[in-house]
Amino acid sequence: MYQLKAKPFGKFKKYHIFNASTGNEIILTPEFGATILQVQLKGQPLLDTYPDPEALESLSWARNSILIPYPNRIRDGKYSWKGNAYNFPINNKATANSIHGFIRNQPSSVESVDLSEDYAQIVCSIPYDGNLDAYPWPFTVTITYTISEEQGFEMEMMVENAGANEIPMGMGWHPYFTIGGKANEWELSIPGSKKVEVDEKMIPTGQLSDFEWDGPIGDLKIDTCFFVKSKELLEVNLSAGDKKLLYWQDGHVWPFYQLFIPPDRHCIAIEPMTCNVDAFNNKDHLKILGPGATFKGKFGFSFEKIS
Description:
This protein is mainly beta. It has helices at 53-58, 279-282; strands at 3-9, 12-19, 24-29, 35-41, 44-45, 65-67, 73-74, 78-81, 84-87, 98-99, 109-115, 119-128, 139-148, 152-161, 167-169, 172-174, 176-177, 187-198, 204-216, 223-228, 233-240, 243-250, 256-260, 268-273, 287-289, 294-305. The chain has two helices and 26 strands. The longest helix is centred in the N-terminal third of the chain and has 6 residues, at 53-58. The radius of gyration is 19 Å and the shape is globular. The two termini are 26 Å apart. The model has no long low-confidence stretch (mean pLDDT 97).
């Protein structure tokens, strides 16, 4: 039976949803960007996380953050919409771009919790009232986290336009996966994808090149966006010894993903994206939401030990 325990985490509250008999659990801060701190399947922790509340507030490396209204980067933080110019703050000094949207540190709340013998589900809401000059249109984000013995972990992300105007929208998530040890010791299997070629500011040039990987990660250095060739389903396998993590995303909604191995090489980010890098400018798979319209999609992962 799944249970829920809540306790303080600095100025926030931490929810621990778990099934002691199966070793499955979700830990999250539902009041701070609905941020997932940890997902454990069959007793194996699978996410690199924030060790304390201070690290969470710093949002270092955007660990497990929700990326809305755009994933990845916007060149120089600038874009235009309906004939007007807008500027996001530059928060990525290395490229002098704006990165990862602005929802990840917004106040959020729990809408519902469902605990049963076989699964647990928690629904969180993140309202945005349009108070930023860089994006003056309100919307509401609804995140549904589900964990079960059969499916593993699944996440559904939905945005609803809460205003009276058409708005530009992109969604993403920034999980950092780990299966113990360092990435150098793991094997990665990715089906054929198209690498998004970028310039010195990590902004797409408009060119694509073939890419696939099936073998040891070794000393691979990567911080790259890819386009999913098959619109049906993307599956990425991460393994080490008898441990195997299978990540998936619905290619219809999430036709892009970013792979990133941080310098400490203790994890690898596999980031689903509904649109390309700098989509507010190049319009590549940018979603336009009319008043009251919604946009949603799912992704998730499972874990097994191979005997």
